[in-house]
Write a structure and sequence with these properties.
Strand order of the largest sheet: 4-3-5
Helix content: 10-25%
Number of domains: 1
Number of helices: 2
Distance between the termini: 32 Å
Strand content: 25-35%
Number of strands: 5
């Protein structure tokens, strides 16, 4: 994502400033949370409750590690983009302290 900002002071050609900010997307390898009902990982838990294991620069790099991580952790794992809104806990959950 690229964001361009321009100054409001455009009455003078030299007073105009432009700044570009680039936010890079990374990929998280996440593992399902353990619960009493699902000791091998709860696939239905919201992604905000999954634990981040490691970070990758690209989706293919993350995907390449899935089998090894699944075998090592013995729980469901998946790759999720860092800007995936499902990684954010709902406001009600944050307020309840859970």
């Amino acid at each position: 994502m690229t964001l361009a900002l321009a100054s409001c002071a455009n009455h003078h050609p030299f007073a105009r400033a432009q700044v570009e900010v680039t936010m890079s997307r990374t990929w998280f390898l996440v593992v399902a949370p353990v619960t009493r009902e699902f000791p091998r990982g709860d696939l239905n838990a919201p992604l905000a409750q999954w634990s981040k294991v490691t970070t990758f620069d690209t989706d293919p790099a993350c995907e390449a590690e899935l089998d090894q991580a699944d075998n090592h952790l013995q729980r469901p794992v998946q790759c999720v983009a860092s800007d995936d809104p499902r990684l954010l806990a709902p406001v009600a959950e944050l307020n309840s302290g859970h």
